[in-house]
Amino acid sequence: MTADTPSTPTLEISLIEAVWRYRLMSVLIVLASGLAAVGATQLLFSSAQATARFAVTDPTNSNSLHMGVVSGAGYATYTAQRAAFAQSAPVLKRASDIIAGSNGPRFTLEMMRASVHTASKPDGGVVEVTVSGGSVAIAATKANAVVQSYQELTAQSINGKRDAQLKAINNAEKKVAAQLAVTKGRDAVSLAANLAKLQTQESQLLADDAGANDGVQFVDQADPSASAPSKLPQNALIGLAAGVLVACVVSFLRASAPAGLGGSGLFARSASPRGPAENKLDRSAHQAAEAERAARLAEHAEWANLARQAERAELAERARAAMKAEQAKQADLALQREREAPKRIAPAEPEKEERPAAEQAPWLDSAATAGPGTDGGVDEVEDEPTRQDIRTSSLMHYYDADR
């Protein structure tokens, strides 16, 4: 049986000890992470946003210039087209002019394209204009200017089409009236009917002009006085949390790194030059750590020896209990065999021929002659127990042989 050699336990440093050992580095990492989050927030989320909404409607759907928007699918398509038109160059240029005309800054077309984004709802009918700017007021001004520019250009487009139709109808009426002045008979009747039809169309266009609209059902303008929620506190907290996590990981890795990889076993040494006082403190801390490590190793070894002794004592106790149980079992078997032995039938002794007492035991005569109490004879009282003992011994020998 080989001797048990206590294995040297591996000492593990806790995360709290590692962070406390490199507390200065950990604080610097957390502060750097928080400042980086604040800087990224100021750089990436410094601009404010504003959103304006308007519901589109077909301005020509109820007159002679209707565009055929009569179904849901056609209306959704028309809304998507109007959203693209709201982000087009004519609308953005006009929006820039509106802003400049209201004593605002002048924005170029590239600046407007970079800051204005439009989108239509999936179910159609509503267009959202989202604009980014240096402040909420500037973004809201841009969004409202884009909606106003869309309305103006849409109305101008409808009015231009209506004016073109009125001009064409007027020209046709003049031609028909000139022909009617020199024509008679059936041709004159036909020309008169055409002239009446053209006049009816002109009247319809003039009526539509009176009830014309700009293609917008309602407008939800952006609020220039609204305050934009700041993302700085939230992002700063996220940066600090990330810094704490990074500091814990770096501290633990440095504390548990071997000496050849930037550490010194239990605690890693710094590669930067140190003064005599700092080196002395490091040596003292290292000696204290080594002493603590030796004490922990001794304690682990002592506990291991106690555990092995307890295990051996338990094994010995189990062996003694097993031996006692086996002895008790053997004793029970022997007692059972002794109880069963008298029940067996002993073999019959062979019959012997009866002879006179003098022939069987000549010494009896001499004993009788000598009389009791003499030296030369044997007492008959003592002879009977002797023969009984011989018979009992023979019988026990037989039983032992049988068993």
Describe this entry's structure for a reader.
This protein is an alpha+beta fold and 403 residues long. Helix content is 65%, strand content 7%. The protein contains 12 helices and 4 strands. The protein has a 4-stranded antiparallel β-sheet with strand order 2-3-1-4. A hairpin with a 5-residue loop joins β2 and β3 (126-133). It is elongated.
Give the gist of this structure.
This protein has 403 residues and is an alpha+beta fold. The protein has 12 helices and 4 strands; from the N terminus they run ααβαααββααβααααα.
Write the layout of secondary structure elements.
Blueprint: H1 15-21, H2 23-44, E1 48-56, H3 72-86, H4 89-101, H5 109-115, E2 116-120, E3 126-133, H6 136-182, H7 186-210, E4 216-220, H8 232-255, H9 276-340, H10 357-360, H11 362-370, H12 380-402
Helix pairs in contact: 1-8, 2-8, 4-6, 6-7
List keywords for this structure.
alpha+beta; four-stranded antiparallel beta sheet; 403 residues; 12 helices
Helix content: 55-70%
Average residue-wise pLDDT: 75
Give me the count of strands: 4
Measured between the Cα atoms of the first and last residue, the distance is 41 Å
Instruction: Please compute the radius of gyration using only Cα atoms.
Output: 61 Å
Spatial arrangement of strands, main beta sheet: 2-3-1-4
Q: What structural class do helix, strand and pairing data support?
A: alpha+beta
Low-confidence stretches: 1-10, 63-70, 264-273, 363-385
What sequence of helices (H) and strands (E) makes up the elements? HHEHHHEEHHEHHHHH
